[in-house]
Amino acid sequence: MKKLIIIFFFFITSGLFAQSGIITWTKIINVTNDSTLMQKNNFSDVPNKPLAISNLGAVAMTDTLDKIMTPARTATLIVNALLGVADINLSNIDVDSARVKLLIENVDNTKDTDKPVSTATQTAIDSTLKKEQNLYDLPDKAAARTNLDVYTKAEVEALIDSLIYEGSLPRPLNVLATTGLEKITLTWANPINYDSIYIYRGLNSEPLELLYRIGLETSFNDTNVVVGKTYTYRLTGLIDGDVTQFSQSSSTYPYPDTTAYTHVKYVSKSGSDSNAGTKQAPYLTMAKAETAALDNTVIIVLPGEYTENSDGLNYFFTGNKITDWYGMGEVIVKATSASYNFRPYGTTTQKFHNFIIDANSTNSYAVAVTNETKNKTFEYCIVKNGKASLLYVSGATIDNIDINYCTLDSSSVSASAIYIGARTNGIISLAHNTIRNITTPSGSYLLYLYGSTNDTVNFISNTISDITIGGSRLIHLRGNTFLTIDSNTITHNGRILGSEGTITSGMVKFKHNTITNNTTDTDGITLTAASQALSPIEIDSNTFNMGYTLRTSSCIYISNHDSTKIRGNNFTTNSTILYSIVKIQSNGQSTKHTVVSNNTFINKSLANYSLLIGNETTNAYDNLCDSSIVQYNTFYNARYYNDTITALNITTHAVLNGFNDGLNFRGNKIYGARYGLVNKGSGVDSLALIDYNLFVNCYQPIRMKGKSYCKIYNNTIYNNNLDAGSGMAGEIRLTENTGSDGAKYTRLKNNIVFNATGTANYSYVIADTASVTGLDIDYNLYYSQVTSNWIIGATTYSTFGDYQTAGYDTTGVNSDPMFVTSTDYSLQAGSPAINGGIDVGLAIDILKNPIIGVPDIGAYEKQ
Questions:
Q1: Is 587 helix (H, G, I), strand (E, B) or coil?
Q2: Distance, CA of 509 to CA of 322 (rounded, Å)
Q3: Which of the two residues, 40 and 133, has the higher pLDDT score?
Q4: Which has the least CB within 10 A, 234, 651, 653, 680?
């Protein structure tokens, strides 16, 4: 890498052999191609370029030795050589002797300034200096400098300063962002050969982020841009592992491609409404552009603040004219109306792109959509400072209103921030928006949905944060609406979704959302109806992070809705007391056919339920939550995270099905709960089926209370007798429910019960006296590393032989099931559980593997 050395010489001369003094100033920078920093045309007509350069106040861009050697310096070196001296100071030399040696003893040494010249000669000299050497009279010195291939001294200093940064490499130069159609073209100069260039980009005032890495190119087309948004670019260079400082920044915004439009109009704060509305002669007001627009017109509004619209009633009324509006850069729209700041009207298609709609806390509604309005789209807009609401949609015949990629931002409103009222068959969509910094008063919400017949509201991929709600929930649902809440990120310390009133039609879908609630003691989702709700609810594939440690509420509460589906969600709570994750209950109406499947429950609470269906005690709503399906869920409870907690000191139920019939409980894994599954009630429950589940480290894994004819097949129960105390807990316990009959006619088949460690005399099976009737128990496998027993009725059986002699498990097995490991409960080859069961009509195991031939004992079928 070369060094550019810039040297300023000042000479003091007196005659040919006058004493020379050289004063130098040097600044060194790392560059390449330093002799060609700038190449320009020669100024060929000037015979004395050095004098011209000096008079132009310039510095020649040179670095070669011969170009910096002055005649005086060259003469001095010659004299030194001839005289054989090294001292350039000739004061000690014999002058006469030196003149002889130099053959100049006859030379007239009269000073040039003392030698006379003729008047004509002097005139010619003056003319030549003035016109060819002095150049003082040149009308365009900048052009002369260009032709002379030079910089001014100021330019040299600026160039050096722009290249130097703590001694590091020079940064990219002359960065320029140029507006294009739906793109921005970036150009720059590379002062050295970088290994690569890093392009950074920021939107508006947001921090820069790395956009792209390229090679030695000097241009880049950024097509991943939003029309009208202002982008700022800066570059760095990389060479030999070192990165330069950032280049100077350049900003611009892309224009829309208007080729698809028949007409194009422009609005500018420097325009006039008497103009033609062209780019060269734009209108002054948006109102003028709206009235002048023809069908299929695009209106481009240049940066500025536009305060118009005195009444707000017909603003942006376009009749049958299709128009699209684009704001370039920062376009602020305000209105003097007390009601509406921005109100599109009519049924033809309109799009409003990249506007800052600022109600200035004086207009009731920042954006209002009312009667007879259809086909309107707001995108990439900022909506803020509505006095009552930011967005108000209500009235007859409203349809196809889309709010996409916008930011809704306001410090305070006097009603619900977004109000979507009664419509008929209308579709309203809010997607990819940022909603933040909003405070509503008591009784108001972030989003209030008051649906009518067959209304559809889609709330998709929005980000919600910093919301303070005076009402009881973030999103309030009332009436009949097909509501989809999908793929949103919601951070809110309060209830997320709630409903009121009677919902007789429609559907609620709450899917793929991420919910974070860290402080407030309230439910996450509460959907209940005053009377029978015919609208099904789907809560699928969401992530709930409910971190409050003193919570007494639920993550999800559903009441009076049939056919609710809760599938594929991740529920996490760090609460240590009194927390229930999901409650399905009736308040007088049918809440049947609930499906809870493929969820993960993380519940560190020491009490209450991970999943509650029905009620703990009998009431007037018994059997209104019948026929629930709970399958392929994983429940992690308090003892999974802290096995020093004694089971007798916690009351957590992983699952409680209370006073409802027909529970299908399949393929679930339950860890560390006091009660794994409790199925309680009274009377015949012939449809209840508990099969192919895994229970690990629970105090009472399976308990049937007062429910008759239940079937318990192919479960694996492992090491559940920890700190059992009295030894009366029981791995499988069949008992009466208070005030009812026992769990009669229970069928226990193909289960593995394994006691690895813990208190001796722990019971594999307990069936109280009220539950012995019709007990069908066989083909089970029992194994214990401590003394265990069976309690049937009033009799305790301490050996497997005595137990079999009494007629129980006559085909059962008392042997090590040979699990793969202490955490992998599938079977090794040679396990006595393989093909040891009986066909009970089931087709797949806990992993959904097929049952092959004679069923194995336990939850895992050997493949």
A1: coil
A2: 34
A3: 133
A4: 651
